[in-house]
Amino acid sequence: MKLRDIAIGANASIYYRMDFTKIKGVFYPRTEDEVLGAIATAREKGYDVTPKGGGSGLSGACTGGDRDRVMISSLRMREILSVSKDQGFVDVQPGATPDEINALLASSKMKFYVTPSSRDVATVGGMVNTDAGGNDAWVNGTMRDNVVRIKMVLYDGRRISIDRDGVRSGDSELEAALNGANMGIHDLSGAHGTLGFVTELRLAIRPITRETLVGGLAEYNSCDELGRVLFRMIESKSPIRYGEAVVSAHPDVRGDLKPPMLILEYPESYESELRQITDIRKLSDSELATLKDIRLKLPKRNPKTGLQMALFEDYGFFGKSLTKMQRGVDKIDSLLEKHGFTPFAKYGHAPSKWYLGDNTPAYGIIMHSREIRPETKTKAQIFEAVLDIVRMCERMGITPKPEHKWPYSDKIKLARLQELRGIIGGGFNAFLLQPNCNEVLSSMV
Ligand SMILES: Cc1cc2nc3c(=O)[nH]c(=O)nc-3n(C[C@H](O)[C@H](O)[C@H](O)COP(=O)(O)OP(=O)(O)OC[C@H]3O[C@@H](n4cnc5c(N)ncnc54)[C@H](O)[C@@H]3O)c2cc1C
Q1: 308-309/314-318 β-pairing
Q2: Which residue, by CA, sits nearest to atom 5 of ligand 1?
Q3: For every residue of 139-164, which 3-state class applies, written as one string?
Q4: Between helices 325-338 and 223-235, what is the axis angle to 10°?
Q5: CB within 10 Å: which end of the chain, N or C, has fewer?
Q6: What structural domains and CATH numbers belong to the chain?
Q7: 278-295 confidence digits (pLDDT tens)
Q8: Ligand 1 mean position, distance from CA 10 (Å)
Q9: Distance of CA 278 to the CA centre of its chain
Q10: Reduced to 3 states, what is the DSSP secondary structure of residue 337?
Q11: pTM above 0.90?
């Protein structure tokens, strides 16, 4: 494997230029002891540690930034250690992907219900560190709702285990300090590898449901209409099992799509109630499969001229911003155009659930946005456009999950990570907490 592959991996983010001479070692441990060995090597030389899973994270965190660092990959730690069907959990190493876990569980008719679109490459260790969720997060929650226990090793070699009752460690002082600070699974969720290396996870699994689902398509005249329907679905706790919105699409890739629209899958018995919230056209199985496929491929297609990019991956419309979605989308588009980008596609899980930096749940749409990259912009100009978008979203109350707001602009999450690092110690992914983090990211565009 090339150094470039480990540093960047499947990263679809805009951060892919870096000084590879700063990577002082790459480790592929198979066991916790081997992880401890790799960390000890970094510690002896004073290097940072960057944990790496599938590299599909979008915040730039999994690159390690600009520090002298050792990369520790979990890609050889993908064993399913044990399955307890009766107690509803599976113990896995951090490098396993949801697809691998669910392939193994299929014969026991159980499922791990967190399946992001990147489920074939994203690892559960990386997913807890970004608090990933799939297009059914609305009903099944995000990683933090589905993780029962996390084992982690720290920069100084100590081990901790975190579950819903708190923290356990062989070091009683550390245990007391972390429990005194109320450390829990929610702190690891979205920590971006800044606290330690996750070596094992206990994940909740549940029987595969047998309900009959049907597919439907709802089209709207404006994003406000779409937002209002989502608002009502959330209010009435609609049992939507799969929900994807296509908010807009460039003529080069739009085909027959008529966004704004919702592609839904729901229990057959719910249909008449759903029709009181929105007009919907029932889809045949093959129509549903085709629409799901088109949605999945939107981020993979390019316009006839130019290349698409994800300037700022996620916009979280919830609460009031959901009912004024058209205004939000128009403002985003005009800001993009002001910076020289042409809007390409906007789509996302809807209705969806995610968590804000203070751990409160948010319900709405996680809207991904893709733009056509202007040829002439410098990396500093591109990054300035990103910051401009973050500032504007902040003003409009459009708040995505911390991965996409960035830990460093999400002051509550940042303060919490710093508080915990005050107890645990630093050493992991320190560039994210440096005051010049934005400068570093800007240099990597
Ligand atoms: C095409 C595509 C589709 C996507 N779809 C979704 C989606 O539907 N929902 C969603 O939520 N996200 C989605 N994402 C984002 C991404 O897949 C998720 O954030 C995923 O959780 C990252 O997992 P990973 O293994 O690739 O982690 P990486 O990118 O390798 O790392 C992510 C973070 O976790 C840390 N980390 C990794 N492993 C460990 C470990 N063992 N211990 C401690 N820290 C660790 C890294 O340092 C980094 O900070 C998508 C990304 C792509 C490219």
Answers
A1: unpaired
A2: 117
A3: HHCCHHHHEEEEEEECCCCCEEEEEC
A4: 130
A5: N
A6: 1-209+407-445 (3.30.465.10), 213-405 (3.40.462)
A7: 999 999 999 999 999 998
A8: 9
A9: 29
A10: helix
A11: yes
